[in-house]
């Protein structure tokens, strides 16, 4: 299983990096799970940074609020809206309509539930960050515990999707269905930068003192 996963991941990356910039349509044999697996690699890099940050801060419990803000922004915009968004709105939504095996149906429900847990964990981290900034240094431990919990959840979640879920699930789709999903994923990504900065404008307006 490990070998299949590695070969599929490598093939996905090779096909992805061979696409010219601005490519809009499905090219070659690229599968709709390829962009998701590539996104997993960046999420894993962030998780690695968080693990190192926790290890380096564990003794002092003195946290840099800018780090908490970066982690929250990364997981809200990239991890959740961009990545979980494509999984839930495109891949999972279309899978849910198929005649899935019991195991695959259970895994699908578990993955959706873990997305909900991840959102709650990020909200908890953001809240601890706000308390810490207000001067309550005890919140430093809560921040580190939240960071740890997020890394544990994401490592397990990504392993389940990459090794045991994504590749077997492709069997439920025709080639046309897979091409349509990939095309819809590109379109989804294209809109994300606009969604992000519409939010920023809204947040900036909220800072106006009334
Ligand atoms: Fe997921
Ligand atoms: Fe994922």
Describe the structure.
With 210 residues, the chain is mostly helical. The protein has one domain (34-195): Four Helix Bundle (Hemerythrin (Met), subunit A), CATH 1.20.120. The chain has helices at residues 2-17, 33-57, 65-96, 102-133, 139-169, 175-206. Helix 2 (33-57) packs antiparallel against helix 3. It is globular. The structure holds fe (ii) ion (2 copies). One fe (ii) ion is lined by residues 84, 87, 111, 115, 157, 161.
Descriptive keywords:
0% strand; globular; 210 residues; binds fe (ii) ion; Four Helix Bundle (Hemerythrin (Met), subunit A); mainly alpha
Small-molecule binders here are: fe (ii) ion
Shape: globular
* SSE-based structural type: mainly alpha
Radius of gyration: 19 Å
Give the low-confidence spans.
Answer: 11-27
Considering the protein shown, what is the CATH homologous superfamily?
Answer: nmb1532 protein domain like
* Major beta-sheet overview: none
Q: How would you state the average pLDDT, rounded?
A: 90
Content of β-strand: under 5%
CATH topology: Four Helix Bundle (Hemerythrin (Met), subunit A)
> What's the architecture, going by CATH?
Up-down Bundle
Oligomer: single chain
Helix content: over 70%
Number of DSSP strands? 0
Distance between the termini: 59 Å
User: Helical element count?
Assistant: 6
Order of helices and strands: HHHHHH
Number of domains: 1
